[in-house]
């Protein structure tokens, strides 16, 4: 009965959130508090599934992460500078709030204030990556920088936890260096397991045995191990396939994570009021992120979208407060306060992230006044030049389309993708491809009705991206034909309503293309051979 109730409440809360255009995870958060209020208790099963979800999330993030991102100044510099400023500002705010009549704040000493400020400076890795995945913008510039900052924050948290708990890594931690020569072996195994259930099982093995168990055995955090193993495999061609095979499990387990927040802590009235105050203070945290990112030569739109992704409180903040409470540095009641502030921040930021581009367009004139004159090369505006055919999304489908179109429009085809490494590989192969983001409103603002574009192919893996690009093309009133791909019939209908001239369902077209290929290669070839044989017989 308890399981049935949990599933029912969770499903209907997630469904209600989607009906009002919020991410389902907001409904899962609400479900946790509702279940807690009606007497449902946190148990080891939910806690275990939540841990599995977070660990799998970090592993799959590692599979997609280019470690060079962490070495960029706009990542490590922004992460370090923002954390320092946030701790200072939050400390001053907490000091200013003392004497307002809230017992939880009045009882804070200097050490407790610093610990709380440190906990509040973190942003949620799970929440931010979940939102970026839903919009398929992990590979967008702002998405890559946001993920890099989140990982740097996680590293700061791991260092804090190691020192605060007194558990320094053992000498056996040096055994982790063996992962370097083991990398070719892991690559070989990944080649051998194929693409079925064995690949899925290998993913779990790498996450929870090679990563989590090994790192925990030498005194390091298991989640960090899962992330590191994922990063090690990121360069393998099968890494993206493994991430896709783990996707459903990760999504299911993460539901338990969001439920666990509400199930673990049911706050009293004072905790809710203090959490609401912390939500207001979150605005300061957002402004600091915006200032730091723009200082690092990011365009105003990139900085704003990155800021919205990072403007929340973190589950790591709960962990830091829990450790501080165990060490009696802070009162345990703060756990409930931080939990509700965390939930408030998720509910507040989710709709902002969904409407981030509309928000940017409304305030862009003001933001651009503070934009640096010299921007990062990959964040500068681009245009289509004199190209007549544009292919958005240079994956396998886009690349195949590019090659075919180049035969009909030699030198007039331009490919566009957000992945820098993919773009460089295409350029080395002799294709004309640039780095750009089709969901960037500034990118489209440069187009004019006099553009020479005759044909546009929307071959991006994200339906959201294809929809947005299509709407922008139609809004600019370009006299061009537009074709798009879709995986599902309802997505195809949506693209047609938005004005696509042709929509190709990948699965239907794959079957049609396969049949056409078979006919050309086998049936026509056999007919040609038979005709040649008949002609030969007639000659005789």
TrEMBL record:
Cited InterPro entries: Cation/H_exchanger_TM, Na+/solute_symporter_sf, NAD(P)-bd_dom_sf, RCK_N
Keywords noted in UniProt: Antiport, Ion transport, Membrane, Transmembrane, Transmembrane helix, Transport
Chief site of localization: membrane
Recorded topology in the membrane: Multi-pass membrane protein
Subcellular location: Membrane
GO cellular component: membrane
Keyword Membrane attributed: yes
Gene3D superfamilies listed in its UniProt record: 1.20.1530.20, NAD(P)-binding Rossmann-like Domain
GO biological process terms, semicolon-separated: potassium ion transport; proton transmembrane transport
Regions that span the bilayer: 45-63, 75-100, 112-129, 141-163, 169-186, 198-218, 272-292, 304-326, 332-352
GO molecular function, one term: antiporter activity
Domain annotation RCK N-terminal: ranges: 386-504
Family label: Belongs to the monovalent cation:proton antiporter 2 (CPA2) transporter (TC 2.A.37) family.
Protein name in UniProt: Potassium transporter Kef
Organism whose genome encodes this protein: Alginatibacterium sediminis
């Amino acid at each position: 009965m308890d399981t049935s109730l949990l599933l029912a409440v969770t499903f209907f809360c997630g469904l209600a959130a989607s009906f009002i255009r919020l991410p389902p995870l907001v409904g899962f958060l609400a479900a946790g508090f509702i279940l807690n209020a009606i007497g449902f208790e946190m148990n080891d099963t939910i806690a275990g599934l939540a841990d599995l979800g977070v660990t799998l999330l970090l592993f799959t993030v590692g599979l997609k992460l280019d470690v060079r991102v962490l070495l960029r100044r706009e990542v490590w510099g922004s992460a370090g500078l923002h954390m320092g400023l946030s701790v200072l500002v939050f400390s001053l705010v907490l000091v200013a709030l003392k004497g307002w009549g809230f017992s939880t704040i009045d009882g804070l000493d200097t050490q407790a204030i610093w610990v709380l400020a440190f906990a509040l400076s973190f942003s949620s890795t799970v929440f931010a990556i979940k939102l970026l995945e839903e919009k398929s913008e992990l590979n967008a510039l702002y998405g890559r920088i946001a993920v890099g900052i989140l990982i740097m924050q996680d590293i700061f948290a791991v260092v804090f936890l190691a020192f605060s708990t007194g558990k320094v890594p053992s000498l056996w931690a040096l055994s982790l260096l063996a992962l370097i020569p083991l990398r070719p072996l892991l690559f070989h195994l990944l080649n051998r397991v194929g693409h079925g259930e064995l690949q899925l099982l290998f993913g779990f093995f790498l996450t929870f045995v090679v990563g989590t168990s090994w790192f925990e055995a030498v005194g390091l955090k298991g989640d960090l191990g899962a992330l590191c193993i994922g990063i090690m495999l990121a360069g393998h061609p099968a890494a993206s396939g493994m991430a896709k095979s783990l996707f459903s499990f990760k999504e299911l387990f993460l539901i338990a994570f969001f439920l666990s927040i509400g199930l673990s802590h049911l706050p009293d009235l004072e905790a809710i009021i203090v959490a609401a105050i912390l939500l207001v203070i979150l605005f300061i945290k957002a402004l600091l992120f915006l200032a730091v990112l723009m200082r690092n030569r990011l365009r105003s739109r990139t900085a704003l979208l990155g800021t919205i992704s990072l403007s929340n409180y973190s589950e790591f903040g709960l962990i830091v407060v829990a450790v501080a409470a165990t060490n009696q540095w802070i009162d345990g009641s703060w756990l409930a306060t931080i939990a509700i502030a965390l939930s408030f921040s998720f509910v507040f930021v989710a709709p902002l992230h969904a409407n981030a581009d509309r928000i940017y367009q409304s305030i862009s004139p003001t933001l651009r006044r503070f934009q640096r004159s010299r921007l990062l090369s990959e964040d500068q505006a681009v245009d289509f030049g004199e190209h007549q055919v544009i292919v958005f999304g240079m994956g396998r489908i886009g690349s195949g389309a590019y090659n075919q179109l180049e035969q009909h429009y030699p030198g007039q085809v331009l490919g566009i993708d957000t992945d820098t490494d993919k773009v460089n590989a295409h350029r080395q192969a002799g294709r004309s491809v640039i780095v750009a983001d089709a969901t960037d409103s500034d990118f489209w603002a440069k187009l004019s009705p006099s553009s020479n574009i005759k044909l546009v192919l929307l071959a991006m893996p994200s339906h959201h991206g294809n929809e947005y690009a299509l709407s922008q093309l139609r809004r600019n009133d370009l006299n061009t034909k537009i074709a798009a791909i879709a995986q599902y019939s309802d997505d195809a209908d949506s693209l047609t309503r938005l004005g696509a001239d042709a929509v190709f369902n990948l699965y239907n077209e794959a079957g049609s293309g396969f049949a056409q290929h078979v006919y050309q290669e086998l049936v026509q070839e056999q007919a040609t051979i038979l005709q040649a044989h008949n002609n030969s017989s007639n000659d005789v």
